[in-house]
Amino acid sequence: MSDFYHTQRTMRAMRAAAIQRGVIAILDIGTSKIGCLILRFDGPPRMPEADGIGSLAGQSSFRVIGAATTRSRGVELGESRALQETERAIRTALQAAQKMANVRVDHVIACIAGGSPRSYGLAAQVELEDDAVTESDVARVLAACDVPDLGEGREVVHAQPVNFAVDHRSGLIDPRGQIGTHLACDLHLLTVDAAVIQNLIYCVKRCDLELAGVASSSYVSGIASLVEDEQELGSACIDMGGGATGVSIFLKRHMIYADSVRLGGDHVTRDIAAGLQVPMTTAERIKTFHGGAIATGMDDREMIEIGGETGDWEKDRRKVSRAELIGIIRPRVEEILEEVRARLDAAGFDHLPSQQVVLTGGASQIPGLDGLAPRILGQQVRIGRPLRVQGLPQAATGAAFASAVGLCLFAAHPQDEWWDFEIPSDRYPVKSLRRAVKWFRDNW
Questions:
Q1: What's the CA gap between 30 and 78, in Å, rounded?
Q2: Is 177 inside a domain boundary?
Q3: pLDDT tens digits, residue range 398-416?
Q4: How confident is the model at residue 269 (pLDDT cuts 50, 70, 90)?
Q5: I need a surface site. Which of 126, 194, 282, 395 has the fewest CB within 10 A?
Q6: What CA–CA distance (Å, rounded) separates 281 from 270?
Q7: Residue 167, in any domain of the structure
């Protein structure tokens, strides 16, 4: 734990130095695509009012000057399975983005979709040394949090204080300067498999880059896709990617729970390939152009022409109805949504003030999903697009880029984390743990 604590502090310092120098790269390593954005930080530009961008977006300080995506290679279920392949794909995306931006980048912030994330809720209380809360009091209360036994081979990605209370005044975002006798803190801890982080560091280093930050893609998708009220009142962001579906829950503007379902849009494509006996590339094209989640009477009559394996179009040509295609797609989409529902139920999502669910990610674009999802996830479901970020090319503004856009916002305005405070490194007791949202409900 303390090793990664120091690693995180080093990365935060590198991020600050890179932003000071003016440019940093953003890397979204997904199962279906690898996206790279290059950000320039050059003071607050004049923003057109009509853009409708809130202060939450933190977009006053940067703009995108380079963007590139490439087909992901060597990544399955959001985790790298073939490091050389992944490294090559990262290099391809990075070089194209650098060429567009006409700059060379040394530091990168990346997000990870896999790694079997686990959420913990921690709490602690300390007596104040003086009448008012100081920085060292905050460090002491964070150090006093009962860190659970995380298990072998796990590393902490996020350790965010999500609530402070001075005496009986709860819900404080920053307690420094508040008068009282006791300071209490609630902390959300998110861990992933250490191997996933190590592989990421290996790939980034091989591309002659320094890793200046790492974030969970569930977290950054939520930052990009949930509006301020949703983050405040309690909402879930479901990031439907190619190989995995990320689940994050926000309340009082903080992420209080994250998980992932190891199913995504690629599983739908595989079902189509198997069901229609066509190659994966053909299945992906059919899904993109003709896919859907709810069949209507019209779909029996709408015929889709498909070719088969041999490349001889005349010999292979055949037709299937759109209703037949939807019959292949729908069961898998339902399975993904049922798994998401189970994760939300386990987290106690039903007890939050608002139960808004926002679907984002590439696989959320399947037509009819907005009709199917409310039947499984509850009535308040919407399809979310990420906030608009200045300089982002039109092609990169869709739901598939939610985590990339969220990573930009995270890079510019990272939330305070454990490692931002001078915590004595010998203070890592191993005690209790509680499920994040239930703990949150009981304490607030």
A1: 6
A2: yes
A3: 888 899 999 999 888 877 7
A4: very high
A5: 395
A6: 10
A7: yes
Cβ(384)–Cβ(399) below 8 Å: yes
pLDDT at 57: 42
Q: Does residue 42 lie within any of the structural domains?
A: no
Rounded distance between C-alpha atoms, residue 9 and residue 22, angstroms = 20
Could you give the CA distance from residue 215 to residue 109 in angstroms, rounded to a whole number? Answer: 8
Query: pLDDT confidence of 438, banded at 50, 70, 90?
Result: low
The set of long-range contacts for 52-56, using a CB threshold of 8 Å and a minimum separation of 24, is: 52/388, 53/387, 53/388, 53/390, 54/227, 54/228, 54/387, 56/227, 56/228, 56/231, 56/387
Instruction: Report the C-alpha gap between 120 and 351 in whole angstroms.
Output: 18
Q: Domain range holding 177?
A: 120-193+432-443
3-state secondary structure the chain: CHHHHHHHHHHHHHHHHHHHHCEEEEEEECCCEEEEEEEEECCCCCCCHHHCCCHHHCCCCEEEEEEEEEECCCEECCEECCHHHHHHHHHHHHHHHHHHHCCCCCEEEEEECCCCCEEEEEEEEEECCCCECCHHHHHHHHHCCCEECCCCCEEEEEEEEEEEEECCEEEECCCCCCECCEEEEEEEEEEEEHHHHHHHHHHHHHCCCEEEEEEEHHHHHHHHHCCHHHHHHCEEEEEECCCCEEEEEEECCEEEEEEEECCCHHHHHHHHHHHHCCCHHHHHHHHHHHCCCCCCHHHHCCEEEECCCCCCHHHHCEEEEHHHHHHHHHHHHHHHHHHHHHHHHHHCHHHCCCCEEEEECHHHHCCCHHHHHHHHHCCCEEECCCCCCCCCCHHHCCHHHHHHHHHHHHHHCCCCCHHHCCCCCCCCCEECCECHHHHHHHHC
Q: State the pairing for strand pair 356-360/235-240.
A: parallel
Could you tell me the two tokens for 39?
A: 């950000």
CATH code: domain of residue 182? 3.30.1490.110
In angstroms, how far is CA 8 from the centroid of its own chain? 18
Overall domain count for the chain: 1
Mean pLDDT of 200-222: 89
Question: How far apart are the C-alpha atoms of 391 and 375, rounded to whole Å?
Answer: 37
CB 89 within 8 A of CB 162: no
438 inside domain: yes
Of the candidates 63, 65, 68, 85, the residue with the CA atom closest to the CA atom of residue 76: 85
Question: Which of 438, 348, 427 has the alpha carbon at shortest distance from 124?
Answer: 427
Give the chain's length: 444
Distance CA 290, CA 417 (A): 44
